[in-house]
Design goal:
Blueprint lengths: L1 H19 L1 E3 L1 H11 L1 H17 L9 E5 L7 E8 L2 H69 L5 H36 L5 E3 L23 H23 L3 E7 L12 E6 L4 H70 L5 H36 L3
Parallel strand pairs: 1-4
Antiparallel strand pairs: 2-3, 3-5, 5-6
Helix pairs in contact: 2-4, 3-4, 4-5, 4-6, 4-8, 6-7, 7-8
Length: about 400
């Protein structure tokens, strides 16, 4: 008696613990994961670093300072400051501003990856939770059938095959039910780690009628907001800016200074000098210019290659979405109603003695399989939508 009370009390505590868990929406989970992500924090620091480098983009060479004796009678100090052609500094500034944009694009890419990961885990948690609920219904029904078959076998009303078949069916479903619970625990732990929450939470129930009026973007504008493509496009902009910078560096520079080459009492106005830095070794400048042009060509090819890859992936995702849309329509109109009808009819036949345990379990197995396939199609439909949004950068 005492043992029975303890078992009941433990079960009540377990149920109370489930209902006490807080439900977190997908949007909240994604928001918390973005705030908690160390990779996104690092990307933010990378943006800050590039902004800090903007101040040093207009960098002058260090001045040359000497103590010399031009006449052999006294020592005098000299200072010379070399300055590149002014266009160089403006080009360097423009180039660094584009590097800041690139760092921001890379941060956007990291955020997109985190969002996709969390949304995938959240969808899987919703699916497995719905699966567990479905398996719980089956587990409860099969347990009753297994116990009833055991009693009827002991009474000599059914043979050993029917008893064993009923027990094996219950064991299989019960094993799936326990596996679903372990999967839920694992997914909750992963999401808890990503979001930074210190308590276990549950996901919102899976939408059993997920068909929506999803607006598909045209192929010409499908990848405009794709983070990976934005990074390559920005790299191409940087390459173009670098070409302009390397060309500007091939222009003559200026040199101004102060140096007394006459007597100690020479007029101040005669002590200043000005000159040009002549780019005599043009081959090195030409090499840098050509390398910058090649870098731009490389980025153009990478952009084309990525667009080709994304197009194939998008076509696949669209095709899967169409397949799962058709499947959802089938299950909603025919599959699920027929499954419910099979379960109801099988129960009536079994209770009236027209079916034995083996035929009864086989019939309801087929019906329950349809319901489980319906859950899987819902998950795959949502995953296809998620993949399309990921590829088009609209998560």
């Amino acid at each position: 008696m005492f043992k029975h009370i303890v078992i009941v009390f433990t079960g009540l505590l377990s149920v109370a613990n489930v209902y006490s868990q807080k439900t977190i929406s997908e949007a909240d989970a994604v928001s918390m994961a973005v705030k908690n992500s160390r990779n996104i924090s690092a990307s933010g620091l990378a943006v800050l670093q590039q902004k800090q480098l903007l101040k040093s983009s207009i960098n002058l060479r260090n001045p040359d300072f000497f103590i010399e004796s031009p006449t052999g009678k006294f020592y005098t100090g000299s200072i010379t400051q070399s300055i590149e052609f002014p266009t160089v500094y403006s080009k360097q500034y423009q180039l660094q501003k584009q590097r800041i944009v690139l760092a921001e694009k890379e941060k956007g890419f990291t955020e997109n990856e985190v969002k996709f990961q969390v949304k995938q885990l959240y969808l899987l948690l919703r699916y497995v939770s719905a699966l567990q609920q479905q398996l719980y219904v089956q587990d409860t029904v099969y347990e009753r059938i297994s116990k009833a078959a055991g009693r009827q076998f002991d009474a000599g009303q059914i043979d050993y095959l029917q008893k064993t078949f009923a027990e094996s069916q219950y064991g299989e479903i019960h094993n799936q039910y326990l596996q679903a619970q372990l999967t839920i625990n694992n997914l909750q732990s992963q999401l808890q780690y990503l979001t930074g929450l210190t308590y276990t939470f549950i996901a919102e129930p899976l939408n059993m009628t997920p068909l929506s009026d999803f607006a598909m973007t045209s192929d010409s504008t499908a990848f405009v907001t794709n983070p990976s493509l934005q990074i390559f496009n920005q790299a191409s902009v940087i390459a173009q800016k670098n070409i302009a910078l390397q060309k500007a560096k091939a222009l003559p520079g200026l040199a101004v200074g102060y140096f007394n080459q006459g007597e100690r009492n020479s007029p101040i106005g005669n002590r200043f000098r000005i000159g040009l830095t002549v780019p005599l070794w043009f081959s090195q400048y030409k090499g840098n210019i050509n390398a910058a042009k090649t870098e731009w060509e490389i980025n153009k090819q990478k952009i084309s290659g990525l667009q080709q890859q994304l197009s194939v992936q998008l076509l696949q995702a669209k095709n899967e979405l169409a397949i799962y849309t058709q499947s959802l329509q089938y299950y909603k109109k025919s599959g699920i109603p027929k499954a419910n009808e099979i379960i109801g009819t099988a129960k009536r036949f079994f209770e009236s003695g027209e079916n034995d345990y083996i035929n009864f379990l086989r019939n309801i197995n087929d019906a329950y399989s349809i319901q489980l396939k319906y859950l899987e199609v819902i998950r795959n439909y949502n995953q296809s939508l998620l993949s399309i949004k990921y590829l088009t950068g609209t998560l």
